[in-house]
Automatic annotation (TrEMBL):
Single annotated GO MF: metal ion binding
Compartments where located: Cell membrane
GO BP of this protein: cell adhesion
Keyword Protease: no
Entry-linked PROSITE patterns: C_TYPE_LECTIN_2 (PS50041), EGF_1 (PS00022), EGF_3 (PS50026), SUSHI (PS50923)
Domain of life: Eukaryota
Listed name of the protein: E-selectin
Residues of the EGF-like domain: 147-183
Pfam families named in the record: Lectin_C, Sushi
Entry keyword set: Calcium, Cell adhesion, Cell membrane, Disulfide bond, EGF-like domain, Glycoprotein, Lectin, Membrane, Metal-binding, Repeat, Signal, Sushi
Organism: Triplophysa rosa
Gene3D superfamilies hit by this protein: Complement Module, domain 1, Laminin, Mannose-Binding Protein A, subunit A
Lineage: Eukaryota, Metazoa, Chordata, Craniata, Vertebrata
SS bond list: C173-C182, C218-C245
Record family assignment: Belongs to the selectin/LECAM family.
Length: 312
């Protein structure tokens, strides 16, 4: 027991070390931030940012706030426009139009005191309000703060996703890949060919592995029941259960003008049909029947909708 615990501990240290090395190796520089020393309206600030960086800044957490507090020059009065605007009463990041979750307002803000305060400024000051926000009229002149996305340069490998961080980025393995070089693809359960049919599989990382697919075809006289094209997803599961090949049920004859309502594939294994006769008619036969795997229906035929006036 003790030995097992030690082994487990060693394994964790090993994984930890690999992850640490990985971060050091791939991290260079990420989101970068910039500002102008010239004041302008909120609209002009956004335009200026889009011309010189990627867009007007988004501040998603405390770490970005702390970073900007150090970056931005602090004058007697330093008011900076950030990329947040009021949209139907919700404070929304203009870059991706999502409502802000992190909202470090100054005390008693936002107060919309002049009833047109639809833009947001950040204070850079010696006071307690350093890094805090205030709602303001968008036509006021303030200093723009911008950011530039680094992941757009695609610094990661084709097996990795890039994640923007504060003045940094990291490369993380795409969903379904793992290992120090993301070389291990997640595996789905091995499938075998259905009886009375064929299966053909292929995939970038190998058969039955992440993003591979398998196609199913049934022999003549048999119909496929289920999904003909399966895909192995990043959680290691197929998108649907493997299909089966079963004898197709023969067509049903219905006399007397009734309505037959069958499940989508009307003649494959497990297909179910219901019969409805017109008003004033009686059904001679079963109301509901299902296609068996041997190609017969769970009912006797033919069916008939007979007029109630009809006497036997
Ligand atoms: C990026 O992050 C790593 C660790 O997370 C750090 O070692 C590195 O110095 C950072 N790079 C910059 C430019 O901040
Ligand atoms: C803005 O002005 C400060 C000094 O007032 C200077 O240190 C800084 O480099 C200037 N920044 C830009 C982006 O021009
Ligand atoms: C902020 O940075 C610290 C240290 O770098 C990190 O542990 C933490 O997860 C970061 N917080 C957010 C919200 O990104
Ligand atoms: C604004 O927020 C309210 C409630 O939080 C929500 O019902 C509404 O749909 C939001 N408006 C927009 C444009 O997202
Ligand atoms: C800012 O630009 C938007 C459209 O981009 C416009 O509807 C709005 O009137 C402008 N605001 C000001 C104050 O110029
Ligand atoms: C798997 O396929 C999806 C959808 O086609 C794609 O977005 C994703 O990048 C692929 N994953 C890998 C690791 O290739
Ligand atoms: C056929 O059956 C389905 C499921 O019971 C039902 O939703 C549908 O309305 C029926 N169609 C007709 C034409 O009766």
């Amino acid at each position: 027991m003790f030995g097992f615990a030690l082994m487990l501990r060693a394994a964790f240290i090993h994984i930890g070390l690999l992850m640490y090395l990985r971060v050091i190796l791939v991290d260079v520089e990420g989101w970068t931030y910039g500002y102008s020393n010239t004041t302008m309206t909120w609209n002009d600030s956004r335009k200026w940012c889009q011309q010189n960086y990627t867009d007007i800044v988004m501040i998603h957490n405390e770490n970005v706030t702390r970073f900007l507090e150090k970056l931005l020059p602090r004058r007697s009065s330093s008011y900076y426009w950030i990329g947040l605007k009021k949209n139907n009463g919700n404070w929304t990041w203009v870059s991706h139009r999502r409502i802000a979750e992190y909202q470090p307002w100054a005390a008693d803000e936002p107060n919309n005191i002049k009833s047109n305060e639809n833009c947001v400024e950040m204070y850079i000051t010696e006071s307690n309000n350093n890094g805090k926000w205030n709602d303001e009229g968008c036509e006021k002149n303030k200093l723009p703060v911008c950011h530039k996305a680094q992941c757009s340069n695609n610094p990661c490998t084709d097996r990795e996703d890039c994640i923007e961080q504060v003045n940094n980025f990291t490369c993380v393995c795409k969903a379904g890949l793992s290992g120090p070089r993301c070389e291990t693809a997640v595996s789905c359960e091995k499938l075998s060919k259905p009886s009375h049919g064929w299966m053909e599989c292929s995939g970038l990382y190998g058969n039955h592995l992440l993003n591979s697919s398998c196609q199913f075809i049934c022999a003549a006289g048999f119909k496929l029941s289920g999904t003909a094209d399966l895909h192995c997803n990043s959680s290691g599961a197929w998108n649907a259960p493997p299909p089966t090949c079963a004898v197709a049920c023969y067509p049903i004859l219905l006399f007397g003008g009734g309505l037959m309502n069958c499940t989508e594939s009307h003649d494959t294994y497990k297909s179910t049909c219901r019969v409805q006769c017109p008003p004033g008619h009686l059904l001679l036969g079963f109301v509901e029947f299902t296609c068996r795997s041997d190609g017969t229906w769970t009912s006797s035929f033919p069916l008939m909708c007979a007029s109630e006036q009809f006497h036997f």
